[in-house]
Design a protein that fits this description.
NTF2-like_dom_sf; transmembrane helix; about 170 residues; Nuclear Transport Factor 2, Chain: A; 2 domains; 4-stranded antiparallel β-sheet
């Protein structure tokens, strides 16, 4: 006579005499079986530490590409205007710009930007695009608007030049 599925299940859980058997005791694994996993974990930790140390040793400026340096230079100039920080503004501008007759003195810079800030709010730069680098000279399109007039976005072509290893904003 054929056994049903239920009968088969019962027969496998019983001993020879039809008595239920105790579940099998779990086998203990040896530390030797875990050795490959421990080695892999050790390698991962060493690699992660190497990457972390290299980031601590190398300055952030060294890790940035040229386009990122240019974006930072443009952003520094606009941020200085927002913060009425004349020293930072001068630091973001090229030597030709600083030597120009039209470059503002501190009082003019602060007054002009304070008036603009009171009327329009801060300058917001949602995007710096179309960066083209030719040697130590680059151009970028700066998309900007005032925070109180977001619907009046403007695009300004900005020239950035490398002087003594740093990128600086220049009008020409």
């Amino acid at each position: 006579m054929a056994k049903s599925a239920g009968d088969r299940d019962r027969s496998t859980s019983q001993g020879r005499r039809g008595e239920p058997t105790a579940p099998a005791a779990p086998t203990r694994r040896s530390w030797k079986e875990m050795w490959p996993f421990l080695v892999a974990l050790g390698i991962i930790v060493v690699v992660a530490l190497g990457i972390g140390i290299s980031y601590l040793i190398r300055p952030a400026d060294d890790r940035m590409n040229t386009e990122a340096h240019i974006q930072h230079a443009v952003n520094d100039a606009y941020t200085a205007r927002n913060e009425l920080d004349y020293a930072a503004y001068r630091g973001a501008m090229c030597a030709a710009e600083l030597g120009s007759d039209t470059f503002p003195d501190e009082a003019t810079f602060v007054d002009d930007n304070r008036i603009s800030f009171e009327e329009n709010g801060q300058i917001v730069i949602p995007e710096i695009a179309d960066i083209t680098v030719t040697g130590d000279r680059a151009t970028a399109q700066v998309h900007w608007h005032f925070d109180e007039k977001p619907d009046q976005e403007q695009v300004t072509n900005v020239v950035v030049v490398r002087e003594d290893g740093d990128w600086k904003v220049c009008t020409s």
